[in-house]
Design brief:
alpha+beta; Heat Shock Protein 90; 2 domains; 6-stranded mixed β-sheet; 11 helices; rod-shaped
């Protein structure tokens, strides 16, 4: 009605007619003028949420077929304007039918109850139609008009419901943005899952091994070996204390992602340190539950923070696998090499003759290590070899594009250490 009234004012100012609504031609002209104004209004971004709400409520269109949020792109605005114009155009026709045809059809149906001169004058019918057959057919004609009007309304609703997914549905840009949001959420969940798997999983494996060793000592004849039990309990205490700190760090990341969902810093939106780096490797090796032969080549301290953090997690997961599946009592050989703008991690451990049973739900560690390396532009490889040794290798570039905190190494020195 607002657009139609504006159109009526425009028509009246040019035609000079005092009563615009008295002429069907001027009404049709005002109606046609109203449609372009409705189309221009439909370009505004907030029209799409209102139109989507109307389509869901009035046309019973499933939510998944319609787009959410304001129209931002040109294609979305054009589609929304098309829907808005179609909606108001059909609405104008349906409004005219229900306002004008409903009382007329009722009057035709009830006309046999009134005098002939009144019904022909009120209904504007020629007097030649007067006769007994008119009295019989008039009620049928009135009901037919109402049925035809209901059919037109239903057809208009069906047309709007059919066009709503095409005009109000997501555009390719909307689908791309939704896919990017889903990928970002999935990346955050995967990152948190890797952090929890590597930190908590390793800690639980080490604690289980230390507690089992202490129990066996207490149950054996060597119960007087209090020093070993004390050392095992100290290792359990240190491991759980460190793991609680790492768990707090991961939960802090989760709260940070919830508070600032739109901000991203680094791979997968990492913002700030998400855990220990290579400078904490000494404490890990001392309390990991297996003997480790550790060797470095190059300036490991010059590795950037992000690469150092991911390298620590890869080493931690490799030690967890050696603890679970390696030959008990044999040392793990670990080498870190910084060369050619790349950090290489090499880890070897002997395998038992009978492979250990994989726990239900396990097997995510190798995939997590591979994901960490791929995010930095690197690669990993792991598997058994013919000499009965499990080998894990990872290559992480120090200057991967988009990696914050990266550092290039200059002159390198060599150093060796045994643990």
């Amino acid at each position: 009605m607002p657009y139609f009234l504006v159109g009526s004012v425009i028509v009246g100012s040019f035609s000079g007619e005092t009563h615009v609504f008295s002429s069907p031609a001027t009404q049709l002209t005002a109606y046609l003028i109203a449609l372009p104004m409705a189309a221009v209004t439909g370009v505004f971004p907030l029209v799409r949420p209102l139109s989507v709400a109307a389509a869901r409520a009035l046309c019973d269109v499933r939510a998944g077929l319609l787009a959410d949020g304001p129209a931002r792109t040109r294609q979305a605005k054009v589609r929304t304007a098309g829907w808005f114009t179609l909606h108001l155009a059909l609405g104008g026709v349906v409004s005219g039918l229900t306002l004008a045809l409903t009382p007329y059809a009722v009057a035709v149906a009830l006309s046999p109850l009134f005098a002939a001169d009144w019904r022909f004058r009120a209904l504007r019918l020629p007097e030649s139609l007067d006769g007994p057959w008119f009295l019989v057919l008039a009620p049928v004609a009135g009901v037919a008009m109402l049925v035809a009007m209901a059919g037109c309304v239903a057809a208009a609703g069906a047309l709007l419901a059919g066009r709503a997914p095409a005009l109000l549905g997501p555009t390719p840009e909307d689908r791309l943005a939704a896919a990017e949001r889903r990928a970002a959420r999935l990346a955050v969940r995967n990152r948190l899952a890797r952090e929890l798997h590597d930190s908590v999983g390793h800690a639980l494996s080490a604690v289980t091994l230390q507690a089992g060793a202490a129990r066996r000592v207490l149950d054996s004849d060597a119960a007087s070996d209090v020093a070993f039990v004390r050392e095992a309990l100290a290792a359990i205490e240190e491991t759980t204390r460190r793991t609680v700190g790492e768990l707090d760090s991961v939960l802090g990341l989760l709260r940070q992602d919830e508070d600032r969902p739109g901000e991203q810093d680094g791979p997968e939106g990492q913002s700030g340190p998400a855990g220990p780096c290579l400078d904490a490797l000494g404490g890990l090796l001392a309390r990991c539950g297996v003997p480790v032969s550790y060797e470095t080549q190059g300036d490991v301290g010059a590795v950037g923070e992000t690469v150092s953090r991911e390298a620590f997690r890869i080493v931690q997961e490799g030690l967890s696998n050696a603890l679970r599946h390696g030959l008990a009592g044999t040392p793990v050989e670990l080498r870190l090499l910084v060369q050619d703008e790349e950090l290489e991690i090499l880890m070897e451990n002997a395998l038992p003759e009978r492979p250990s049973v994989v726990r239900p739900g396990g097997g995510r560690g190798l995939r997590g290590m591979a994901e960490r390396a791929v995010l930095l532009g690197g690669r990993t490889g792991a598997g058994p070899h013919e000499d009965g040794v499990w080998r894990l290798s990872a290559r992480l570039p120090l200057t991967s594009p988009g990696t914050p905190g990266r550092a290039t190494t200059g002159k390198r020195t060599s150093g060796k250490g045994e643990r």
